[in-house]
Structures are given as structure tokens and as C-alpha cells.
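User: Could you walk me through two proteins back to back? I'd like the raw sequence and the C-alpha cells for each, with a short line separating them so I can tell where one ends and the next begins.

Assistant: Of course. Protein one, sequence then structure:
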Amino acid sequence: MSDNRRTQRVSKSEWLEAALEVLEHEGVDAVRVQRLARKLQISKSGFYWHFKDRKDLLTQLLDYWTHEYTEVLSENELLLSLEPREQLSQIARLVDLHNLEKYDVVIHAWAKTDPLAKAAADKVMKIRLDFLRRVFRELGFDREQVEMRAVLFVVYHSWERTTFTGMSDRKRASLRKLRLELLTS
């Protein structure tokens, strides 16, 4: 294995992306320093440049997922400057384009057995719903309609790719447009 090891340092985000991939395919128990070092083709000592231990890795992994898969939209100044309908359109497009729901299922499965993961999953859901509630309120919907539309938007975008695995990008874009028309009318 020493012949295949990388000679350059691996960034924190590379460790975290590798951890997310292992989490997705093998579960949280497989997210181990040695496993990630093998995946990244680097010695495990490189891990300690970025993390104190496995617990620190898992904590930072949840923070990374929160930021890179939710806050990247909810805190995006360009997105926030758009009109409400365009915000929804861009959110839906960006979720699809960057597969921002990719780790939702595995994080929620992990959250069933771990309080730290549950807190992160709850935080992300709150961020997403609060953002969408604001947008639907700006569109003039009443409280009950706001809640239904926000929940429907989140559920659809969190599960579409998982549920409809064979759907083409063209079909997904067509349905996205129709769904947005439905939710905003």
C-alpha cells in the first residue's frame, strides 16, 4: 500500500467528503480513521492535522453536512436577493444540480441512534423549513398554506432522487417546473 499513498496533505474537506461517502455506503460504524486513510490513500497520521479523534470527526462531519448541504443555500446572499418565486426555482435547481439531498437519508438513519446526529438533522430541518416558510409567506400564503407548502417542498426535494432513481434529468427538470407552478399558485 505504501506505493499508492499520496504524498501531499489531504484537506479537512477531503477527509469530511470521504467520511460522508463511507457513511452513505457503509454506515456510521464504518467511519473510522483507518478506513478513511485507506480510502484517501494516505497514512492515518494525516487525520490528526484536522481532528482530535473520531468523535471530533463525527461532530465536524455533521457541521460540514449542515453547512455544505443546507446553509450554502439558506445563507447565500445572491439567492436571498431574488424574488420569492425565483428563490424557490433556484433552490430546487441547485438541490438537483449539486445533489444536496444526497446524504439526508443516511444522516436521518444515524439520527435514530445518536443524539448528536439527531440534533444536526433537527437543526437542518429547522433551517430548511424556516427558510421556505419565509418565502411562502412573502408570496402571500396564510399560515396553514405556508406550512403545507414548505413541508411538501422539503419532502419532495429530500426524497425525489431516492424514490425515483431512474428519472432522467430532463424529466426531473420538467416536473420541477410544474411543481413550482403548483406550489406558488
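----
Protein two, same layout:
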Amino acid sequence: MHYQHRVIIDAPLSRVFAYMDDVTREKEWQPAIVEASKEPQGPTAVGTRKRYESEFMGRHIVNTYVTTRFEPDSRVWYETTSDSVLRAKVELQFESTGTGTAVTMAVTGKATGPLRFIPTGILEGVFRKELEDSLRRLKEQLEDVA
């Protein structure tokens, strides 16, 4: 499955990028997340791991993402580790719009573990809605504090 969504946020690019990179803030815009952690602490770099425990379709799931490429204030690529319940590659792209920031999130993935038993069409619909809702919440969070 592959899907992507774009949102325009009325906030400076550097602020949007820093907010999205802060694992402690991710629950604010991704409500399915129960717990999130980052290793090692400090600035994100290639090799940084982010571990997420989430509730998804009534199931408790755990995914770990490794940063595979990192371009500050521009692009970030993540890929899940083999012990995750979702095989996924994520690309985040950030672009200045002059007065704000365009954020595009693209996800390519395949369900494994307990999620593999859910019909693909249903799974894709739920993932797509969750992505759109998360980016809408991201926009609200960043514009509400502006």
C-alpha cells in the first residue's frame, strides 16, 4: 500500500520541522500513539531509532523506525525494523510556502503480524484516514500556538 497527504501550516518551516522531530510531542498530533521514545537522545541523525506503541483498530501494536536519511528543515526518511508489525518506509518533506510550511508525508507499507489478517482495502482506508487526521491535528497544534 502507498499513500501520501500534504498539509499547509501557517508556521515557519524551522518550527514545524523541530516540532515534528520531537518524539515527546508526537502524541499531541498522533492520538493513536500510547508511548513514544527515541534512541539515542539528542538531535536526530541517520541511525536514530524511534519506537512507538499504538492502539490501532483495537490492537496494541509496536513499531520501531530507523532514520535512514536526514536533511534538516527539508526531508527525513524512516524505515521500520524487522521486529515491527508494519513494514513501512516513510518520507517527510518540508517546503517553505513563503508565509508557512507545506508538509508532505508519504508512506509505503505492508502489514505483518496480527495486522496481516485484516483485508487490505480496509487497512488502507483506515491508514489513509489516520494519516489525514494526524496532519490535520498537526496543523491545528502548530497554528493554535502561533
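The two ends are 35 Å apart (CA to CA).

Let me know if you want the two compared in more detail.
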